[in-house]
Amino acid sequence: MSDQSDIGRKRQREIYVAGVGGRLPAVPVAQAQLEKAAQAAMSAEAWAYVAGGAGRESTMEANRAAFEKWRIVPRVLHDVEKRDLTVTLLGRRLPSPLLLSPIGVLEMVHREADLAVARAAAALGVPFVFSNQASVPMEAVAAAMGKAPRWFQLYWSRSDDLVASFVRRAEACGCEAIVLTLDTTMLGWRPRDLDLGSLPFLKGQGIAQYTSDPVFCAELGQASAPDGAPRPPLNFLTVATALAQKGNFPGGLLRNLGSDKPRAAVQRFVNTYSRPNLTWENLKFLRRHTRLPILLKGIVHPDDARQAVALGIDGLVVSNHGGRQIDGAIAALDALPAVVEAVNGRIPVLFDSGIHGGADVLKALALGATAVCLGRPYVYGLAVAGEAGVREVIANILAELDLALGLAGLAGLHAIPEGTVMRA
Fold first, then answer.
1. 8 Å CB contact between 141 and 121
2. Same domain for 356 and 268?
């Protein structure tokens, strides 16, 4: 974003002036209406995958309830004519404290998938954390961003060689950090997906980082199904899934009609994706294979935060995966203060899970977060209006943050005073 000054009022004027001519925003501004519009634009399977959570989805509810437990306490008669949203994170000065969380299988949401998100993020100077489960290889997404900041999310598979390959590729395409996600060593129990019998990876969706990787492709000969693995019934839908696998594999449907590689790639992914036996000891391997800063995502316990600091980890992301992994887990915002206290300023602490608007961002920052990560809302914007929708969602959140900051009597984010938020 070329000019970050007074972005809240500028965004308001942009919308209101357009409204004079009858032109409304590309996506609804209100979160509830944005969700409704996104659901209408998405297939049932896509909506279940993006909007759903674990179990009864009580963790998702807790994430939102936690924000309501904290209230902003405005101060008056402070000069807030000029407001500064910039932050410094891992040595880079950013125009705002907002990043885009990694979200996989965006091809279910919009045909341009990660590319649309990348272009929107780059236009606004917001770092995009590439998903390990992306629909587009990281190299193509990086090219779409130019010199804009990007990071890479890593899921640690059963193949250490593949992990090292992903990290090498992330470095080569200009990613500035590795975000190791630790709360998804197994998929959580997600009733919305289960009720539809829908796992997009089985159609070859969301595995573009794998099918574009030389190590993964070399391992396709090891893709036999494990003993006792269930087999799908043979019917029209099974055939359609096989065709989808071929269509989603590099080269497309026609080139892959006679090839068994697409099925082998899906089988290999299923066999290698999760790594439940990952331990702190494995982090030494990652450190040996990258010069990039390493952040651990999924930290909610202060003891884990202290252990990470002791091992020389470069940053943490307090997150419960948007409520998608454990039903009844602690709300991410409730976990944030204790993690911040445990870290004691030695490394940055980012926040993820439950951010809906700019006021939420301010609350997380006031509780000690260095920056925040936005998830589902930008995906809803993508579903409704593609790249323009993502861009508007980001712009709206930054505008609300800017206005909330000024209306709270603050001119910047560098030293938010104690007492800016209080328990309800």
1. no
2. no
Domain membership of residue 220 as a residue range: 197-272
Cα angle 34-299-198, degrees, rounded to a multiple of 5? 50
Selection from 87, 91, 176 nearest residue 128 by Cα = 176
**DSSP code for 347:** S
pTM score of the predicted model = 0.94
Count other Cβ atoms within 10 Å, centred on residue 5. 12
Q: How far apart are CA 371 and CA 347, in angstroms?
A: 12
The residue from 221, 249, 272 where one domain ends is 272
CATH code, 79: 3.20.20.70
Tally of domains within the chain: 2
Asked whether the CA dihedral 401, 403, 404, 406 is positive or negative, the reply is positive
Among residues 221, 243, 272, the one where a domain terminates is 272
70 and 206 housed in the same domain: no
Dump pLDDT digits (tens) for 121-163: 999 999 999 999 999 999 999 999 999 999 999 999 999 999 9
Residues 15-51: tens digit of each pLDDT? 999 999 999 999 999 999 999 999 999 999 999 999 9
Active site residue ranges: 321
What does the DSSP assignment read for 49-66?
HHH--STT-HHHHHHHHH
The residue among 180, 185, 172, 186 whose CA lies nearest residue 283 is: 180
Residue 307 class from Cβ within 10 Å (0-12 exposed, 13-18 middle, 19+ buried)?
Answer: middle
From CA 225, how far away is CA 271, in angstroms rounded?
8
Which two tokens mark 177? 């950090």
